[in-house]
Queue: 4 jobs
Job 1
Amino acid sequence: MRPDSIQVWDLHTDFRDQLPDVVTLPQFFKENGYTSIGLGKTFHNNIPDTISWTEKPHIEGYPFDPDAVYLIEENLQIQESKKQKMIAAGKSRIDQLGHWYIKANAVECANADDDAYFDGAQTSLAIKILNKLADKNEPFFLSVGYYRPHLPFNAPRKYWDLYDRDSIPLAKNQYPPQGSPGYAVHGDQELRSYDDCHDLPLAGEKPWEEDSRFYQKYIDAGLNEFDAIYASMLEGMDRSLGDIMTNLKRHGIENNTIIIFMSDNGQPSKASRNVPLRGHKLTPYEGGIRVPMIVKWPGITVPGSDCQDYIIIEDIFPAILELAGVKESVQIDKKTDGVSFVPLLEQSGNYPKDRAIFWHYPHTYDQPPYSTVRKGDWKLIYHHIERKPELFNLKDDISENNDLASENPEKLRELAVILTDFLKESGALMPMDKTTGKPVEYPDKYKTQ
């Protein structure tokens, strides 16, 4: 469900506090005869929501939020030093499992086995669970939520060494489009919280494209250490998924199992751009919101085929339930956010063409607030601080370099009205303007110059 439907726009609010009776996707499976098991980051870290699952196991020895796990002595010393300082100050960051949660550096590559980090250990546990589920010969829903690639970028060295840094190209477009708000290409607050990244530029300092500390040296020297670590995490996650699929085949249930693989956002700001896309995680540009999804539905999806129609994350909910044969899936007010993409998998032609999809980001977390709509090839981004729209035609300009807002006021107005209607109908909150004490105006209030 969309954040506006459940009235949750941050990473701390438990959705049960807002809507205690809402039925989640794994909960629907559990109530329809499936064994529903969740591993890792299915919901956000601090929301286990045990009512949704038949089982929600956690791997012993790892902290409740197992991303900040380090093996190299330098990082262990940083963690211990911070721990002692907090103890001396009478502070604590002990989680509900009794572990200290302390960040050190943003990157690490240790000479270690896969299971030394949480994602590898999680894969081993997933395989053990699959072994038991396969023997029961009963329907199951298994969600394996991988933490990588996510800060901190920690991975076994064996994956790092697979990549020749000098052979990976950098993005040719390392500048913002003319007229684009300066804050739209600046970050990354989360990355700056790590010990080896404290000197990253802050908002209001030099524009991102002018900071030679990061981009010119990449051009001169080839792929940097950060990108090599990032690539190694992708390799490790891919290997983990392969291990799970191999285990399905070993049990002879691969032809009776649907696999859906997807990501939630684009690469972090410090990583090289995902050419030809502009932007990164948390931004409204394609590099931040366009992500891959792969579906293996034995006997239905064609191996090696691809689909150019777009979907959005809330479509996962009705699609998975339809795939599993669950008939009843309506939510609040007898409505369900999202549209099932099963017709795209079946290539039946019954999927709505050029439907409008939306993103609403009404707060500041590294990036300032914005609202966005895509309809067909056209995309409108409304920046709340400046009340500034950007209009792009993705068919002609996938890199979002050419803002057409002033050239095509008719299309700008059409999308602004569609976006405004959605914000009002969904009950979406607009941020408050501190200078006026009033909410930011809706995008249809923008007057073309």
Job 2
Amino acid sequence: MKHLPIIHVLVDLHQGWGRGLIRGVAAYAMQRGPWKLDYVPTSVSEKELKRVCRESDGVIATITHADAARTLTRTRTPVVSVSRIDARLPMVYQSDEQIGRAVVNHFVARGFRNLAFCGWPAHRLEAGRESGFVLATAEQGLVGQVYRARQTRPGRVTSRMALEHMAAWVGRLEKPVGIMAGNDERAFDLISACRLAEVEVPGQAAIVGVDNDELLCTLGPLGISSLAVPSQEIGYRAAKILAGLLRGGKPPGSSVVVPPLEVVARESSDVYAIPDTAVAACLRYLRDHVDQRVTVDELADFVGLSRRSLEYRFRDAVGHSPWQQIRRTQVEKAKRLLAETDLRMDEVARSSGFRDGRQLGATFKELEGERPSDYRLRHRGRYAGVLGNIERDAVQ
């Protein structure tokens, strides 16, 4: 009888990132396995982790503390790390610098000059994202404020005292401010802290999380904007490397670094910190009517300005013309539909203010450097169909 490899995945399933990771591993196992997959929480003791390694044919690990790194480095069992650590292990991980840059750019594009970060430093992922935020703000010539949240461990309910401490920090920040949270849990806490501090979201404090955990981001009355990270792709790639190791192959010569996807904009950052009220009104109008093929003349009439005056004020406020802003807004709407729906390309085009799929394709390629179909495939993953099969099988 053929041996069925036993693969353990060390991961936190209470976070969207961890759930995406294990789904990516499962997709690879369904395509190229079969494997027997088992889940191990990152809080596992060193003794228990050693037992897991002895019983496993291979391990894919989110490494959150030094004891786990030491154990996994010393075991003879093939291990692939999905954390950025200083260890002699094959690694597939996300770029903290690119994550920080994507969120900071999201705020800067909306006119924010006051930026801040809120995270839990004891968690490796959040600590790395803090570093990425600091680097990204420096690239913009800005200095961001950093708050290190009080919490015992990931997954625990944040105490009232911790929220009050966070609220006091939010209250002291210069407004309006764009706050990057270390993950969506932290963003959820920030919404509560702002409520305690009587700080309006997004008017005074715009908030963006990381991981795009749809459950958390859409749980409350205020949708949370979040940077989508390719955790499924990381899981898939890690599984592919592990499969090579199980066949006796050599690990890759260098680590695999996977860039983030896009900020999925929801209500928590749906605001523009722009002093020019006319331009800010145009941006809001565009956001609300992007599917109606808005023109520059229509924007000028809406705010009671001549077209020439609006052109000057737009360039002064945001650095480009109203026409360029219309196209950017259309493409941003198209990107969201491509990533989150199964609409046909002509339907995506019409819902984004384009005449048809051909016009969408030409504009999208010009601004994004790729075709809409390639963007959809990259964002949703080459294994999206396999993941759908897994979910359907689980329900049946």
Job 3
Amino acid sequence: MSVRALLRPTGLQREHGQIAPLMAVALTLFALFGIVAIDIAMLYDERAEAQTSVDLAALAAAQELPVSPLLAVAQAEDYLRRNGWDLEDPEVTITVNVLGTDQVEVVAQHHQAPLFGAFLGLTYDVGARAVAERTVQGGGNYAILVLDETACQAFYMSGNGEVVIENGGIMVNSSCASSAVRAQGNSDVITDLFHLFHQGGVQIIGNADLDPMPSPVMQRVADPLAGVAPPDLATLGISPDSGGTPGSPSTRTVNGNGSHTLRPGVYYGGLDLGANTDVTLEPGIYALAGGGLRTNGNTDVFGEGVMIYNTEWDGSCGEIHLNGNAAPHLSGYEHAPYEGITFWQDAACTETMTHNGNADTVGGVIYLPTARYSLNGNGDMGPLQIIADTVVISGNGDLEMCYEEFVEIASEEVLRLVQ
């Protein structure tokens, strides 16, 4: 064999010579894809961080609404600045818009230099947008707060009367979908605001009218007095005018024409105030240990700075029953922690408090955490707050009540992202 033949390339050698350039191209492409993949992953992380910053900036800004839109804008910019955004950089664009009275929009964008993609002439824009909203759920100038969370007809209005609440409104916590609020007959409710837990429903029968119609709120309103300890009977001591003793309770009855004065303390067996009687309650706390309170006929009851506390004794509770043309002229207790409270029924007592006849001036809080308040009559109820498990108002007369904040009913601020 000649030397020329030995030096001639074989077929296998020719294939190796063709594969090498292909491998070089393939490796180059793989490298480029790897570079792009790394940059994309970094871009994803950058955008996630940008979205988080913008979300939190929008929430921080929304806290200032609706009082100060200018401060809301400043809060968003300040938050972004403190979290690494250079607002002076021409490559950074920040836009903050106040939308209406309760929303703020934050848009942020900057150019991101890629780690490897710059060699390929690639540039990225990293941006994010968020809209935050500030709302207030629950809380308000509630003259009537209905606590029960599930009862149907938790607020029930019937008859031909009209109830007018000045400077305040109604809140109902019930989630009963069919009739958390029910109005029937020719009854009317006129109030500044009417709130209802969003899962609750309204039932109107006949010509009844609610003005305004209940509007849904997302949060229930908590019992503002739930954390207040009730009076201690031993600390109060027995009243000199009590009809009975702890071992032998007996209702104290006041009868006959004329004027009578009662002193605070524990009444073992309760109180029964007869017809045509004028009764003055000296300032203080009147604890009705069993037996409750009953007024009859044309009884007039006067008392400034008093709280009537209805509780059990020997496992028994009595009702608070204001009957006929009885006209209580009462104002709430004047000392903490019971300041402003006029009637308080122990949570262990579920008996309905009934107020019949011509209502008169009762100033203060009527607090029945587990019981119904039933009102049937007409007249001026005075400045008060009714906080009860359920509320029923009936009859053909017109009632007026004026809200006054004796007990603060806290509102809950809700900040949320809506976009």
Job 4
Amino acid sequence: MSKYLYRLAHLACQRRRLVLAIWQAPAIAAIAAIAIDLASGGRTNDSFTIPGAGTARRC
């Protein structure tokens, strides 16, 4: 097990910038999603009706 961890650490050290980019990509995506949510007002509308649906008809 320690041999594999050593190899992984060695590879990560050799490819520092790639590892950093891989770690930063989800963080940047999350920050962008939050910024888009705040820019759009932060409100969602999840109520909708389908004309002619069985539950929408009144007896």
